Model the fold of this input.
Amino acid sequence: MSIAMLIMLVAVVGIVAGAGFMGYMLGRQRLPPAMTPDDRRLAEQMERIELLESELTRLRDQADFTERLLEERGKDASGEPR
Done:
């Protein structure tokens, strides 16, 4: 009977070890990699750059609008410049 118990013990240990290994591998694949402080700083800088780009675009649009208004004010009702 001791050989049967030994075989069962080896089988149970093998199944538990295999299940643990599979769980570890599945969990490792699904978790995102941990962000380092450098990665966080880079992400923050990218966000700031995007905000600056959008602000610059807005300012360019305002400058174009102002320039068009000034050009229109410089003309008479007849379309001639003053």
About this structure: The chain has two domains: 1-31, 34-82. Residues 37-73 form the longest helix (37 residues).
